[in-house]
Amino acid sequence: MTLLRIALKSARFRRTSLLLTVFSIAISVTLLLGVDMTRKEAKVSFLNTVSETDLIVGARSGPTNLLLYSVFRIGNATNNVTWDTYESIAEMDEVAWTVPISLGDSHRGFRVMGTTGDYFEHYRYGDSQALTMQEGVEFDEVFHAVLGADVADSLGYEMGQEIILSHGLASADFADHDDKPFTVVGILERTGTPVDRTVHVSLAGIEAIHLDWQGGARSSLTLDAEEVLKFDLTPTQITAFMMGLENRATTFRVQREINEFDGEPMSAIIPGATLSEFWRTIAPFEQVLFVISGFVLVAGLLGMLTTILSTLNERRREIAVLRSIGARGVHVVLLIVLRWLLGGRD
Amino acid sequence: MSGSGEPVVHLDRVRFRWPGQEVDILAIDELRLCAGEHLFVRGASGSGKTSLLNLLSGIHTPTEGEVRLLGTDLASLSLSKRDQFRADHLGVVFQQFNLLPYLTTLENVTLACGFSRRKASRSKETSDVAATARKLLSALNLAEDKHSAPVAELSVGQQQRVAVARALIGRPEIVIADEPTSALDADNRDRFLELLFREVEAHGCTLVFVSHDPALAGRFSRSIELDAAEPASGVSA
User: Fold this and answer.
1) What are phi and psi of A191, to 5 degrees?
2) 20 to 30 A from B64, CA-CA: which of A115, A316, B109, B124?
3) Least CB-CB distance to A328: which of B80, B92, B103?
4) Topology of B36-60+78-226 in CATH?
5) A10 touches chain B (CB under 8 A)
6) Whole-structure pTM value
7) Whole-number Å distance between alpha carbons of A244 and A128
8) Which residues, including other chains, have CB under 8 Å from residue B228's CB and lie 6 or more apart?
C-alpha cells in the first residue's frame, strides 16, 4: 500500500532523529518512573523497617529517640532498663513474646547489638518477612556473632572470622575488647533495613566483655575469655526490648501500664505509629523528590515539544504536497498514525 | 468565444473573503479557460493569488458565485469527492519544496498515480506507470541516472522539473503552477518555462500560472492581473 511505503521510507529517512527522540523519551520516562518509585519505595521500606512488633519498650525518653536507637541504631539510650523490670513485664499475661536488646558497643563503625535467639524468631520487617541466614547458623555460644549483610560485605568477612568489639562507638585502641574476640558463625540475608548494618551477639556475650569493666573503662582486675564463662552471665540491665502481644487490641492498655510502671520510669512506643510520625517530620524530603519527578516530566515534555515543533514546518510542507497530489484528509491522518506506529511522531 | 464547447475552467461572479472579513480578497466576475489555454495570473502578494489557486484546487469554496471545472461545480462536491477530483484532474507545481525528500525522483513522480486510479490508468495506456514517468523525466531533460537518485541530490531547477513531471503524469486536464520559477535564476527560469510549455502542450493540459513577475506575461496566450485594491474583472474568452 502506498501509504505504508511512504511511512516506512520516511521513518528510514529520519532514523537518526527518530532514534534520538525515542532515546530521549525513554530516558525521561525512566527518570520519572525511577524517581517516583524511589520515593514510594523509600517510604514503604521506611515504614516497614520493623513489623509485627507491637511495642518497643525502653527507659523513659521521647518516642522518636527510643525508635531511633532501638530500630535504626542512631544515637544512644539515655538510660537502661533493669533485667528485673524486663522480666516482670515479660511475664505479663498479655505478652506473647519479648526480645531484649542491648546496645552500646561497636565494631569498626557498625553497631553491636546483644540479644537472644528469640530475635531471629520474632523480628519481622517489610511485609512480615522473617530474618533468614545467608550462611551459617544463629549464635548459641557466648562469643559467637551473626553479621548483617552490609557488615559482611563491606568488611569482607566470612564465616569463622574473629572480630574484636570496641567499647562505645569510638574506634580507639584502648577501648577495644581485644582480649575477648568473637567468632562469626552466621551471616544474615540482606533485608534493606538497619539489621544489615548490625553485628548481633548474645546478651551473655555483651555481659562477658564488660565483666571486667567499670564505669566505661577497663578495671585493674582482668579476666580472660575462659574465666568469664565461669560467671553468671545473666545481664543486670538491657537497653530496650521489643514486644509482641497475644491480642493486638490490648496494645494501648499495655502501653499505658508500662508508661505508668511503678518500679522505674519507662516508655513504650507503637513502632508503626512512631515510624509514620517520624516520616512526617522528614516529609519535606519526600516533597523534594516529588518536585524533582515533576521537573523531570516537564523536561521530557519540553524536549518532546521541541522535536515536534522543529519538524512541524517540514511536516506541513509534506502534507501540502500530499494533499496537492490528491491525498485525502483520511490519507494524511492514516500516514500520521502509521508513522506513529513505526515509532515516529508528527 | 465560448463556442468551443464547455470551458475547462469557468469562474462565474466569484467573490471570496474569510469569515468575519468585510472586504473581498478576490472578486472575479467571469473567467473562462478553454482546453489548452495558458493563463498567466499576475499579482503582488496579498492580491488574492493564493485564494484563487485554493478556489481552483477546491481547497476553499467561494463566498459567492461558482467555480466550475470541467463542467463540475466544485462546491457541489463533498470534501472527499473534491479531494478525489483534484487527484484525478489537477496537477500542481509549487514555488518550492514540491518533493518528498525520502522518496526517489521516480517515486515522487509516480506517487501522483498512487492517489488517483484515473491518472494511473491513463499513464498505463502506452506502457507501465514507471516507464511513463521515466519518459516524462527524460523529456524534461532529467538524465536517467537521476531517476532513482534521492531528491536531495537534485538542484532546485531539477527538483522543479521533477515537480512538473509529477503534475503532468496521467495527463490531468488542468495544471496549476504557483510561482514555480521564483527560486530559479533567469537562465534556469527561461529553460524551465520552455520545457513546461512544451510538455503542457504535448499533454494537452490547460495551464494556470501564477507569478508576481510581469516579465513572464508575454509568453502566455492570456493574462490577468489581480489587485487587492481593485478586484480584477476577468475578461471572458
Assistant:
1) -120, -20
2) A316
3) B80
4) Rossmann fold (3.40.50)
5) yes
6) 0.58
7) 13
8) B25, B44, B46, B47, B48
